[in-house]
Write a structure and sequence with these properties.
There is one protein chain. The chain is α+β, with helices and mostly antiparallel strands and 149 residues long. It has one domain: Thiol Ester Dehydrase, Chain A, CATH 3.10.129.10. The protein has three helices and six strands; from the N terminus they run ααββαββββ. Strands 1-2-4-5-6-3 form a six-stranded antiparallel beta sheet. It is globular and about 45 Å long. The model has no long low-confidence stretch (mean pLDDT 92).
């Protein structure tokens, strides 16, 4: 098996939110998970996981680990909007509450609840097409200098 080096695109340098959405949609993890960023602004994002991307489990939902991985990606892009231009978010903590099967398509709504110069606290609600809340996540993203990767 060959290993592919996926280098993420650089973080946008200004507040052009269309550019930020394009940036998010080019992130390797977004494309690998089948995610689409549909809204992104300072401290808020909406990400979509369409139907048919992942094989459902017996309950009809996507695997819980996949749902949390998608939430982690939503946390990362929204945290990036609150960090200095020379920093990227790294997941420091992530908590998940599974409420019902995450039957796609899913909408992941992420919000920065508090931020400082080094830490960003984020909450994510994962909704099914019928409006039911399937998963609720919260976590802390730590600023990592781009040069220290």
């Amino acid at each position: 098996m060959s290993v592919v080096n996926h280098i993420p695109p650089p973080v946008p340098s200004d507040g052009d939110w269309g550019e930020w959405i394009s940036w998010a949609n080019l992130l390797p993890q977004f494309t690998e998970l089948g995610l689409e960023c549909v809204e992104l602004s300072l401290g808020s994002s909406v990400v979509r996981l369409p139907d048919g991307v992942w094989t459902p489990n017996p309950s009809g939902g996507v695997n819980g680990g996949v749902a949390v991985a998608a939430a982690d990606q939503a946390m990362g892009i929204v945290a990036a909007t609150s960090l200095a231009p020379d920093a990227l978010p790294a997941t420091a903590t992530l908590n998940a509450e599974y409420l019902c099967p995450a039957i796609p398509p899913l909408l992941l709504k992420a919000h920065v609840t508090q931020s400082g110069s080094r830490l960003v606290f984020v909450s994510v609600e994962v909704e099914r097409a019928d409006g039911r809340l399937a998963l609720r996540c919260s976590g802390t993203m730590a600023a990592q200098s781009i040069g220290s990767r």
